[in-house]
Amino acid sequence: MKQDAVLLPEAYAESCGRSASATSLFLIAVWFGIVAGLIEGAGLLLFQRINWSQWGRVIHVSTEILWISPAIDLLFFLILALAVGAASRLSTRIPPVRALCFLLSFLAVYDWLSLTNRLYHRACLLLALGVAVAVTRWLGNHEFQAVRFWKRSAPWLVAAFLLVFVGIQGGKWLSEQRAVANLPEAASGSPNVLVIVIDTLRADHLSSYGYARTTSPQIDQLAKNGVLFENAIAPCSWTLPSHASLLTGRYPFEHGLKNVQPWLGWGERNLNGLATLGEALQRRGYRTGAFSANRIFFTRNVGLGRGFAHFEDYFDSISDSFIRTLYGREFARFYLNRTEKSKVTRAFRFFGFDAWLDKDTEGSGDYGGAYAKRKRADAVNQELLQWIERNPRRPFFAFLNYLDVHYAYGGPYGYPKPEWDHGTVIDEYDAGVRYVDDYIGRLLQELQRQGLAENTVVIITSDHGESLGEHGMNYHGISLYWNLIHVPLIFSYPGHVPSGLRVATPVSNAAIPATVMSFLGDDQKMFPGPELSAFWASSKSGLQWPDPLSQLGQNSVINTQDRLVKGKIPTAADGDMESVVTARWHLIIHQKSGEQLYDWTKDPSESNDLIKTPEGEAAALKLKAQLQAATAR
Length: 633
What we know:
Blueprint lengths: L1 H6 L2 H4 L8 H29 L14 H26 L5 H19 L6 H61 L10 E7 L18 H8 L2 E3 L2 E2 L5 H10 L3 H4 L21 H6 L4 E6 L17 E3 L5 H6 L2 H10 L7 H8 L8 E5 L7 E3 L3 H14 L5 E7 L22 H25 L6 E6 L20 H4 E2 L1 E4 L8 E3 L3 E2 L3 H8 L29 E4 L24 E5 L3 E6 L3 E6 L14 H18 L2
Parallel strand pairs: 1-8, 1-9, 2-12, 3-13, 4-5, 4-8
Antiparallel strand pairs: 2-11, 3-10, 6-7, 9-11, 14-15, 15-16, 16-17
């Protein structure tokens, strides 16, 4: 080391080796933190698209990760620099620059290797360790030149980081401002439109649909003041295709988004170029915003952002942002998936960090990885209300997705449990319904307080139901039974829809876009009808309503537990499925396993397949021809 010092400039010799200045360590940490984070952010964006076939089991990111990852890595590396500096002062045997560079190069390379999601953790560790050793050896002969380079380039990297931050956040803000500024003038008196999708909600678990438990007093009150469709049918039994239908008014065979698609197929030309409700309302002068708690299948990333000038899907909090970074995921994997008896869990509870422990189904936690943090209804409400307040002069169209009824069931930690919640699966599912109902009520009360409620169309529905043990299945997306496609559908628009009307005719909730446009007096027919408003029009004589369809493509998003029924009943694990619902019958067709037929009016649990009865055979033959004709258009 003495010989090395002779070769270095005198000024540096005094600060290198065992007594490097705090400034040097600080700037080295800044350099490594920003470089590691920028590459990490770009890599996370790239590899989530490259690994698109695994979309359902990873934690997702959007462009904001390009500044979030550097910010997290920078903070982490600065803490390490502080620790190395302190350790070098306590022990003169620790060379601070080399020790810090060993740690930071190891962590940076491990970060970059892990984000590919294609290597084992042990392999990433060993490769990163080898690179760190090589870097440290090289540094032994080039420390002066390396430190000088880091010092000179660190300010430029800080500038680049700030430019990325301002460019992304400012770009989003400017894009929205420009979109709003370019809107035409809205017609006087145009109503606001609020579409609320309660992800995974079965209609028969709402008290307004006859459920014995009082799970939904707020929704029930809305139904009393509006129109309730008793037999609304979802176009699919999982989120992505159903949301595409809710936005386009089309069935999956029309919009084409039956499954997650290769990343090159996403973009402005997705959904087969069909218009969305957001686009239609923008043409009428509406501000448009989407607020999603389902960060897997209702996001811009999967191609559902068209027509929304504002989209809140990721990064709703510091904890959510942190967990979407590489080291945030590692932290979550090791520390945020422990039992309630764990000291770590109890410490988080003690310091009030309960939200960090509220796990979502997003992520690879079921496979040994990390879970994302759940986005609750209160966060969705807050995002919406803040957005509304930014520009109250224009009418708004807001599309909300609440995920609180989705597995894992139940309200958040600390939220009062209903008296009937004793911890069973059904109890917890119903507790989630009660929680989201509470926050829907709070949202509507706030709109009332702001004077917006009287001129707001409120629509409540769901994208699909849930099995809850019926037919041997627990979740959804695997079949098209009644409990998976029977969803709530409620319209409230004071003075424009009748109060307390209940419609028994089976309808598709894909008719929402056409119905919304009918409230505005639109005559361009951008969405296929007929509109649901026909049920309360002045003349309903001779109303012929098309039988609703559902379609489910063969897919791999099926939960591991539900795969156990494969071979016992027809499922989407090994073939496409489709169904049609009439006033009496429900025909389900599997691509390979044939047909099932149920009289859902007498057998809502669909336990008695009538396909082989004489009456069933005749009905199925007619319905199959009807279904083929409908999907051939």
